[in-house]
Amino acid sequence: MAILSAHHVTKRFGGLLAVSQFDVEIQENSIHSIIGPNGAGKTTFFNCITGFYRHEEGSILFKGEPLDGLSPDRITRQGIARTYQNIRLFQNMTVIENVLVGGHVHLRTGVFGAVARTRGVMAEEAKALEEARHTLRFVGLAGRGDYMAVNLPYGDQRRLEIGRALQTRPALLLLDEPAAGMNPSETEDLMAFVRRLRDELGLTILLIEHQMRVVMGISEVVTVLDYGEKIAEGTPAQIQRDTKVIEAYLGRRATA
Amino acid sequence: MNARTRSDWMAPVKSGLMGGLIALLIAMVGLVEVSVKRPILTADGRILLSVGQLLLLLPIILMCYKAVQVFAAGCEKVTDRLGLLATGALSGFFASLVLAALVLLGRVINLRTVFIRASPDLFNTLTFGLGLGGGSVVLLLFGALLGGLVAAITLLPDRIRRPLVLGLALVPLAAILTSALFAGRGFSVPVALLVGVVAAALTFAWRQTQPKLQDRVAALSPSGQRTYQVFRWLLPVAIVLALPRLGAYPSEVLVNVGLFVLMGLGLNIVVGFAGLLDLGYVAFYALGAYAMAVLTSPEMTWHGIHLTFWQALPFAVLASTSAGIILGIPVLGMRGDYLAIVTLGFGEIIRLVFLSDWLKPFLGGSNGITRIPKAVVGSIALDNSPKLYYLILAGCVVAAFVAIRLKDSRLGRAWMAMREDEDVAQAMGIDLIKTKLLAFATGATFSGLSGAIFASKLTSIYPHSFHVLVSINVLGVIIVGGMGSIPGVVVGALALVGLPELLREFAEFRLLMYGAALVFMMLTRPEGLVPEARRKLELHEADGEV
Fold first, then answer.
1. Which of A11, A48, B61, B468 lies in the 20 to 30 Å Cα band around A199?
2. CA B212: distance to chain centroid?
3. B436 falls in which pLDDT band (50, 70, 90)?
């Protein structure tokens, strides 16, 4: 069953067609990659899903319900979380505070509760903290919770960003180039980690990635975008043989 | 010892000249002239050291220190002690050279046609009253000696240096405070020595015993630790409660500080926590004050309602809170500079509304509103500063409590996330509209409370009390104190509101000193005097892994 489906999604910036009549179906509990040359419209599509951009045409359905026109925070509440191409942590907050912010939507405390600090509020905070510690352990950042996020090494910042997204308890996780800037062994770890997210947490993963090793290694379905249009879709093996894809990446003569 | 190049010797000369120039500026704008009568050290009624002289010394000391630091930064451990001392002395020499040049120039041509502050009195101060020739030489030697002394102090081991510097800094501070508060005559040499030595000795002893004490406390049982916490707070609380005993004038100053602490706590939520730069914050202060005035003053007959302070207080605070939300709605989509400019406009609009002839029958226009009754508790009217102090103190305690609780909650985290990255905060499921309006409303509430107390304190209010400068002052308070830091607000208010209030002779230099303080803070300590502390959350309890 498709957890997310997009129909004829079109996003324009002035005269530029960033995403054009894009259709895609993301199967539940799958790892689905979107690839394409720079500027193909991949991140724009992510921004349309998460509500940061409004697409002019088409619609995006999540679990059968339309997301069109919802604000980003409402979409997150539906169960979609994301990470960013250029890591965007809350830099001057501690690691565990970052994760706790991810848990924001699952807490109820209001102004008066926060000031009065009733037993219910205290219990909720304690539970949130426990869950945040659990998430830190899961992403491999146990013991670093009290560091400032800005002080973490690059790889750990990536993990933290994923941890923060996980704390919103999503059903669908959008990862925007998670392997960017990683060396081969870190990339290997990341691939195993993404599989764990799917297998252990039962998430659906939608991935934008440039490293073909990652894309071909873990995806079940690959969708290829070029100039905002879908030019191919299929298993990694099918994509590797697709002449249109090779053309888009390497130019026309390479297909000959 | 590595060979020093020429540029290594240029650095201290440069810092020295810079220090001298700053001292020159301080002298030329007249800061020295107004404060040369305020004594710090006296002997037999003669002033040995005045605030004016200290103001000349401070930039020189600071720049010598900087030169010494630059010198020491070049090597792991200072082996070249002589070089270090020479650096300090050189820097001090060139600083005093600038001042000596001024004296010389002042004798040759009449500077006073342009610089009216270049008075014979100033030259006399600069030459230690020894005349041109001898005085200049003494001045130069003194500068070099001072620089050398600064360098020598940095050479001392840490455990001696810190108490010594603290003792040295505390003496003038204590002398100025006592002279300002009690119209005292500064310290005589023995008293100054006593204060300095005691302060230094206490610091030294405290630094020796503190680690041991902490171990002892950590070894206590939970109930024992609670008792320790109670006792630890007992003394500060007692001091804070006893402060009005200092007299009417100090209480008056403290009440003004308290009004700014209250506003600062509010603005700290808006700017420090949530990162929303609000420059029209005075609007809510004005609204609180006007709501109080309109509801309580017998002059206001158009509505036929006359409440007491306590009856009107909830309405005044509520008026500000609602205004916080109403003024917050149009700026929800704005960020950074745009938000600052629009809120600045709002602040002015509110003031102009209160000033307008159009609303004069209702708000008094430029005549303001007078005859606002004092607050009454039981049978005691809070009609003087020592009594009002407790009212404002209670307000501050409540506001600080609320601010601390909010900061360490889900809402505080949402504010901080919004401050760090608004888009990502929203992507984490934070409702920006609710969260922003909550920040504006809480901030406005504290400000309204402050305004209401202000109105009943003065018993009359006028639109010009709510000038845009109040907003800027509050912002200065939280910047100097440390953005997002609650103790910082108190320290900032004491420094920016309390000190100028005490040192009345500097009244006309207030803005200049604000500017200087802000620039200095941004250069040396951008995080503020008391930076925002972070709670340790992960390893709070025994968690096992490290």
1. A48
2. 33
3. very high
